Amino acid sequence: xxxxxxxxxxxxxxxxxxxxxxxxxxxxxxxxxxxxxxxxxxxxxxxxxxxxxxxxxxxxxxxxxxxxxxxxxxxxxxxxxxxxxxxxxxxxxxxxxxxxxxxxxxxxxxxxxxxxxxxxxxxxxxxxxxxxxxxxxxxxxxxxxxxxxxxxxxxxxxxxxxxxxxxxxxxxxxxx
Length: 176
What we know:
Elements: H1 5-18, H2 31-39, E1 60-62, H3 68-77, H4 79-82, E2 86-96, E3 105-114, E4 117-127, E5 138-149, E6 154-165
Parallel strand pairs: 1-2, 4-6
Antiparallel strand pairs: 2-3, 2-5, 3-4, 5-6
């Protein structure tokens, strides 16, 4: 499946800003559930100590599926907090279509609510120079985030240090 880069990012942004979409698997949520989910967001703390070349636990952010979209949106909106962190994320692999130069862009993503139901997605574009996984493989990606201006807005990339193909799949569809 090929995604038009601009349309996909516009849909993700629209979905995140409007909250439209369907939620067929869950009943209505109460305020304490929503508050509990918000408290689980792993916002890295800023450290004033000089750190060695070895990463500490505070330098690594593992994005879990409970708050997948929320965490990626926070990285995009508060990039300065995350720019030096190592990000670990799981999802499906595909090549997204790039209108700019006809070069497909590797990406890790999960399906999400969109403007017309469940037609959105969220994830990262990948900068990786190695053997790419197969389309729809479930992968765990480790890397450093980067915002790349494409002329219209910034795209969120991971500069990949490791890609693993996993046998066990997580939730392909996320709504938070």
